[in-house]
Design brief:
Radius of gyration: 52 Å
Number of strands: 32
Oligomer: single chain
Strand order of the largest sheet: 7-14-11-10
Shape: rod-shaped
Structural class: mainly beta
Largest sheet: 4 strands, mixed
Strand content: 35-45%
Length: about 375
């Protein structure tokens, strides 16, 4: 009728030590019920081998939403299930598989390696189960701002200023970034609008989809270009109608011409068909444009006498050298030197000299 009560056993180590790698021993604290305080027995305690298998520890990534920042970091807290007793885990983080914007709940989030399981057995007491989650990365705002610019009118909308960039994440770049004027024309001080041009490329590894682009315009100035319109000197015989007059231009932007100006080119002169021999000022006028500051340079119209052709040529030469005598006295004096008369031939505003003309007057 003797008996033993309170009889238990336990592992020498709580840790997982492999199949039959753990020792089991009989615990003290049992009672031998023999009516003699157990003195009737010599107790022999035998150990045995046993096995502790790993517990399941589940680490679950948490869903997360963030604005694109060029990294895979995630701020969610990893869920832990199955941790036993005083065991703990440190360094537990999660991250996105891709840094890119992939749509609502289109981004996978995994538990990162590198955590430490503090179980006294190097983490071997647990079988880890890692659960991923879905999250969202939303596009970041990328601001492209045109910069104020001033230039001289050149017939195009190009601008030399650099576009301002704000919000571009580390590692990302943007190329082909330009700005231009909305209009090529002179519109006054800060009257021109500058816009960021399309055609740039965002290098973010996602075709630019990681950003919502905001473009800001600004104001700038196009100043008038200098344009010179100069009369081409001309001549006509005494009593002949006024010849067609012409002018040269200097300073037009590519693609522009007199047709680009408002109005029509006029030549103002006091000379008429009946004007006597002399030199008459011809002034260009009648055209304007806000794109140009126009300098009008006058020329001369010389009325030639009915004297020998060489005399007429001499007068025109002296006129172009600004040594003419507008009173006609010089003409009369030269006329006394010659007695042969010939027809003065005017062609394209100049003289067509016969081949038999001599050089008597030093031409």
């Amino acid at each position: 009728t003797d008996s033993v009560s309170g009889l238990t056993e336990s592992y020498l180590s709580k840790n997982v030590l492999g199949t039959n790698g753990s020792t089991l021993s009989v615990n003290g604290g049992y009672t031998v019920n023999d009516g003699n305080g157990g003195l009737n027995y010599a107790v022999v305690l035998n150990t045995a081998l046993g096995t502790i298998t790993p517990a399941t520890l589940t680490l679950s990534a948490s869903t997360n939403t963030k604005v694109y920042d060029g990294t895979t970091s995630a701020s969610g807290t990893v869920g832990v299930s199955g941790l036993i007793g005083t065991d703990s885990i440190s360094g537990l983080t999660e991250s996105y598989v891709s840094k890119n914007v992939l749509g609502t709940n289109g981004s996978a989030i995994n538990v990162n390696s590198g955590f430490t399981l503090n179980d006294g057995n190097g983490g071997l007491n647990y079988t880890l189960v890692l659960n991923a989650a879905l999250g969202t990365i939303t596009p970041a705002t990328l601001t492209l701002s045109a910069t104020s610019n001033t230039k001289i009118y050149d017939g195009n909308t190009s601008a030399a200023a650099a576009v301002g960039v704000s919000g571009l994440q580390s590692g990302d770049t943007i190329t082909g970034l330009l700005e231009s004027y909305a209009s090529k024309n002179v519109l006054g001080t800060n009257g021109s609008t500058l816009n960021v041009d399309a055609g740039y490329t965002i290098h973010d590894g996602n075709g630019g989809a990681n950003y919502n682009v905001v473009t800001n315009s600004t104001t700038g100035t196009i100043n008038p270009a200098a344009l010179t319109i100069a009369v081409v000197d001309a001549a006509k015989p005494l009593g002949a109608p006024l010849p067609p007059l012409d002018a040269t231009t200097s300073g037009f932007a590519p693609g522009d011409s007199l047709a680009s100006l408002s109005g029509s080119l006029q030549f103002l002169t006091s000379a008429t068909q009946a004007s006597p021999v002399g030199v008459y000022l011809v002034t260009p006028a009648g055209v304007s444009s806000p794109n140009y500051t126009i300098s009008f340079v006058g020329g001369t119209l010389t009325v030639l006498p009915s004297y020998p052709q060489i005399l007429a040529a001499r007068v025109l030469a002296e006129t172009r050298n600004n040594t003419h005598d507008t009173s006609g006295g010089f003409v009369e004096e030269l006329a006394k030197k010659r007695h042969r008369t010939t027809q003065v031939v005017i062609k394209n505003g100049g003289l067509n000299l016969p081949s038999d003309m001599d050089n008597e007057d030093g031409l």
